Amino acid sequence: MGSKTPLYDKHVEAGARIVDFGGWDMPLHYGSQKEEHHAVRQDAGVFDVSHMTVVDLSGERVREFLQHLVANDVAKLKEHGRALYTCMLNPDGGVIDDLIIYFVGDEDYRLVVNAATREKDLAWIRKQAEDFGVSVVERAELAMMAVQGPKARELAAPCIAAEHRDATLALKPFTGTFAGEWFVARTGYTGEDGWELVLPAAEAPVVWDRLLAAGVVPCGLGARDTLRLEAAMNLYGSDMDETISPLEAGLGWTVAWEPGDRDFIGRAPLEKQREDTDIRRFVGLLLEDKGVLRNHMKVVVDGVGEGEITSGGFSPTIGRSIALARVPAGEYDRAQVEVRGKLLNARIVKTPFVRNGEIRIDV
Amino acid sequence: MSELPGDLLYTNDHEWLRRESDGSVTVGITEHAATALGDLVYVELPEVGQDVDAGGDMAVVESVKAASDVYAPVGGNVSAVNEELADEPEKINADPYGDGWIVRLTVGDIDEGELMSPDAYQQLLDELDD
Questions:
Q1: Element spanning A52, H or E
Q2: I need a surface site. Which of A190, A214, A223, B31 has the fewest CB within 10 A?
Q3: CB–CB of A33 and B41 under 8 A?
Q4: What is the pLDDT of residues A40-99, one digit of tens each?
C-alpha cells in the first residue's frame, strides 16, 4: 500500500484503476485513457496532482540562494506571482529534478517539485540552503489539482471564493496568485490552458465533486502522460536524469547564461558542453509506419549512429505514434526505430506535436 | 464485468477460442485482458498462411500503455485475420468476443487439455480479483 492523496476515496468512487506511482496510490485512468485525453484537448479535465511536492522558501537571501540553486535565473521574475520553469543541477551538470518556481513575495518563493524525487530534492535543497539562512518548509498538508483544457477556467471559476474570482480569472499564462488559503496558477502539464490549484487537503474532495458536477472529466496519470508527450514537455526520469544535462534534453532554453558571473551549481560542466559540437540532439519523432514507439527503443540514423527513445507512445490527437528521442549530433531529418526486431521509418519533427487543441506538425 | 460467453474455451493468458462449424477456430483476447490493457491503439497481425505453434506468439496488441503478445491457444495455420483491426483496434475493447476477434486458424485435432472451460476461466478471474 502506498501513500494516499486526500482525493484517493474520490478516485475509487469514480471507478479509477489505481497504480503505484513513486510510492503513491494514484489513478491511472477511470475507464478510458483516450477519452480523458480528448476531454482535456476539447473541453476540460481534472487531475489529482497532490502527490507532487510543494516547498516554500523564505529568507532575506532567498533570491540569491535560488540564483545559485537552479540553472534558470529568478532575476527574470520581475513581478510577484510570476512562474519560472527550471532544472536543478548537480555539480556535474546532470539534472536532479525539474521544477516550477513561483515568485510569491520579495523574500518568499514557492517551488513545486516531482513526487518521485521528493526526498533527494528536499535533502539537496536543505543542504544548499544552510549557507544562505533560507528556511525550507515542505507543505505536505496541501492538496493540488490541475484543471486543464479550453473550458477549464470557465468551469472551475465558480469553485474559487467570490472575492478572489476576478483576480484568478485575470491571471496571465505562467503566473499565480493567492486566493485566501488557496494558490491558483495558470500553469499545467498538458499544452492546454487551465489552472493548477493548491489548497488545504480538507477542501479538496468538495472541490473535486463540484468540478465533476460542472462537467469536468476526471483524468488519470495515463492521460497526463500522453498529453504532456504531445505537448513535448519533458518527464523527469524518462527524458532526463542525473546523468543527462539540460542541453541534451531539449532544455537549453531554461538555462540562463547571462549574467556570466552567476555561479549556479553545474555551470562549469555545462559551459564546457555548450562548446561541444558532438552534443546529442533531443528531437521529436513521428512514426510514419504503423506501430507504437515506446521508451528505450533503439533509434538508428543511417550513416550517423544510434540513439534512444526517451518517451514514446500513441498520440490520441494525431492518431499516430510519436516520441521524444536523444539521437547523435548531425544534420538529418529521418531516422528508423527498432520495434520488435524490425526497423520502422520515422521523421524528425519540430515540437510541440500538439498545443492548444491543434496539431502543430505536418502529418 | 459481464458474464463470460459459454460457448468459448479460454487460456491462462486470457485468450479465447471458438470452434466454428467449418472446423476452424477463431481466436481473440478476453474482456479481462482488453480492460487490463486499456484503450487499444494498434494490433500487429500475422500473415495469412503462416503456421503458428500452440503457445507461440501470434499477434501483438498495443494499448496506450503497453504492448502485449497474443499467444496461439492451439497450433494451426492462419486462414484469416481481422483486417478491420488495422484501422479500428478499439473494436477489441468494444466487443472482445465478437467484432474484436483477431485471428482464424485452420487446425487439426485440438488438445483441449490445455484449454479452460468458461467455469474454470471464471474461477481464474475470481482468484485474480482476490
A1: none
A2: A214
A3: no
A4: 999 999 999 999 999 999 999 999 999 999 999 999 999 999 999 999 999 999 999 999
Interface ipTM: 0.88
Chain A residues whose beta carbon lies within 8 Å of the beta carbon of residue B65: 28, 33, 222
Fill in the amino acid letter for A348. Answer: I
Q: Which of A221, A218, A177, A215 is nearest to A196 (CA)?
A: A177
Q: How many CA atoms lie within 13 A of A41 on its CB side?
A: 23
- A29 touches B at CB < 8 Å: yes
Backbone φ and ψ for A149, nearest 5 degrees, come out as 130, 165
Each residue's pLDDT tens digit, B1-11: 678 999 999 99
Domain boundaries, chain B: 9-122
Q: How many CB pairs under 8 A join A and B?
A: 38
Say whether B39 and A34 touch across the interface (CB within 8 A).
yes
Q: Calculate how close chain B gets to A23, using CA atoms only, in Å.
A: 19
Q: Look-up: residue for cell 511536492?
A: A53
The SS3 of residue A14 is: coil
Give the number of other Cβ atoms within 10 Å of residue A20's Cβ.
12
CA-to-CA separations, A23 to A28, A125, A235, in angstroms, rounded: 14, 21, 17
For residue A265, the SS3 value is coil
pTM: 0.95
Alpha-carbon Rg for chain A, nearest whole angstrom, is: 20
Residue B115 CA to residue A309 CA, distance in Å, equals: 39
CATH of domain B9-122: 2.40.50.100
Q: Which of B57, B65, B90, B93 to mutate to test the interface with A (most CBs of A within 10 A)?
A: B65
Answer whether A27 touches B (CB < 8 Å).
Answer: no
pLDDT above 70 (res A254):
yes
Residue A3 corresponds to which amino acid? S
